[in-house]
Amino acid sequence: MAYNADDTVSVTNELGKVTKYSFQTIEGVRRITSIQGEPSANCPNSNSTFTYDSNGLLKTKTDNKGVLTTYTYNARGLEISRTEASGTAQART
């Protein structure tokens, strides 16, 4: 594991493959905003991006295939809706 000057973290696995994690601090908590690397069985979320609302709740996730998942929460911060493949004919809630 390497902590980089650009506030990212790089993890190298036993096969020498590197996965780089980027972060954003929201409400004092560090949240992952992107994972860059070669997807594998142990890290299928590589090349994914994440966005958060002002409360630090996950708002969207785009996976390594470009599929967008959106999340909606109630006033207490509990997830009330999740739409996978948002904006496509394959969208499902």
UniProtKB/TrEMBL annotation:
Q: Which InterPro entries match?
A: RHS_repeat, YD
Name of the molecule in the record = YD repeat-containing protein
